[in-house]
Design a protein that fits this description.
homodimer, Rossmann fold, four-stranded parallel beta sheet, 12 helices, 44% helix, Asp/Glu/hydantoin_racemase (chains A, B), peptidoglycan synthesis (chains A, B), cell wall biogenesis/degradation (chains A, B), cell shape (chains A, B)
């Protein structure tokens, strides 16, 4: 048993979907969330920059005594997980593998589609994770770079969103995937439109799966908190105009207890 | 006469459209361009963050001995121009006012539309600039947040882009604006679609106008370079996967002579 908080970081506030899942599955745990909103998004930056930012994000959480680090940012998990693991001694889990394991459990035909931002897809992180866990599956990746801006515009159910989704998803539909992995924090909000196009197949939302796997790992390592009342502290590196409105859309409840912070090495932002 | 370079900065590489215009109008000038690609975009960040970033960008150029600073970023020009002017003694021009002056020269009915990112439009910077220059005009602003992602996706002529443009621009069309100001570095690439919807009205591309106004100001201050061969040095705070391809789309020529730099106060990015 360990009463220290669980640390979760993302490039922005989309990772609050992971916080929501973890709170549901592990109601006693205290959570410290860091969103690097001053430098979001990570997906359009270089691998070097993402690694550097991710190390700073992890350091911030470690400095606050977290017992576990969850990488809720798909870009970070895609390119920085290994180096974070070798740099820090705290146990660490990324959003990529839990979704991969779940997709492999669900698929019957072994044909699995993965959608994400350009960086997540082109990094090859998903293909690598699938190959390491099972050689049997056939993975079809598809970058959907307009999905995040469409969610942030609030066009969840707009004709344009349906057209964009049709453009992106038709190749996956044609290839008869029986399982679709949503490889981005924003995509669960587009489920209605995605389901219209892809139909009645299996869907994997990695935000939920990372919560399930975190619970198992905390139990295995005897790090669970059985008594806490489960507080959530949210730290953001920038407070933009509409962060609260968008954040609450992801968190699914009012956003209290948040503050602006500056990361080490970023003396520019005081 | 002064042989020092002209400094131009933007949050990313879209500001290379301004470089292109300045090179055409002032072929003898040396140009130092800074794109803060590690922290782009600015438009989704807070006013405080944009001011801080813009001061650091200006400092970088001033440290390199520029004789003039051009703010090619509409978000910076919208919220940080005044504070940059009071902080530095070098002459400074932003992208907002030159376009406003041109639009006022072109309009016959006084009904002018302005399109830009959410921050540019909601900051009220354009309304303020129009009011200060002429009380006669009626300004209709419209935020078009999906235009930048569509340009970066390369969907310049896609049915989706036409539908999005129709959604955004129909209110301006209905209000019979006779002049449309493109208040974002990326929008000139969407001219074909925009013209399909708005028809044969006046269009103002502020990137060109800032070049015209810079030339006039250099002449007035006797800072022109009559003899230089006109070099361009490009500094970026991050080199992402496809920066060169997108950059050349804006610059209109091959991108040579670029390097990655770190800004003062950003020790995190070494």
């Amino acid at each position: 048993m360990n009463n220290n908080p669980v640390g979760i970081f993302d490039s922005g506030i989309g990772g609050l979907t992971v916080v929501k899942a973890v709170k549901r599955i592990l109601p006693h745990e205290d959570i410290i969330y860091l969103g690097d909103t001053a430098r979001l998004p990570y997906g359009t930056k270089s691998t070097d920059a993402i690694i550097q930012f991710s190390l700073e994000d992890t350091q911030f959480l470690v400095d606050r005594g977290v017992k576990y680090v969850v990488i809720a940012c798909y870009s970070s998990a895609s390119v920085a997980l290994d180096i974070i693991k070798t740099t820090f001694s705290v146990p660490i889990i990324g959003v990529i593998r839990p979704g991969v394991r779940k997709a492999l459990q669900m698929t019957k035909t072994g044909r699995i589609g993965v959608i994400g931002t350009s960086l997540t897809i082109y990094s090859g992180a998903y293909e690598k994770a699938f190959k390491e866990i099972s050689a049997q599956s056939e993975i079809l990746g598809k970058a959907c770079p307009l999905f995040v801006p469409l969610v942030e515009e609030g066009w969840l159910d707009h004709m344009v969103t349906e057209l964009v989704a049709r453009d992106y998803l038709t190749p996956l539909k044609r290839d008869n995937v029986d399982t679709l992995l949503l490889g981005c924090t924003h995509y669960p909000l587009l489920m209605k439109v995605i389901r219209q196009i892809m139909g009645d197949i299996n869907y994997v939302d990695a935000s939920t799966e990372v919560g399930v796997e975190l619970a198992r790992s905390l139990r295995d390592l005897d790090l669970e908190n059985h008594e806490g009342k489960g507080s959530t502290a949210i730290y953001l590196t920038d407070l933009s105009m509409n962060f609260k409105e968008i954040g609450e859309r992801f968190l699914g409840e009012p956003m209290k207890n948040f503050s602006r912070v500056s990361l080490k090495g970023r003396e520019g932002m005081k």
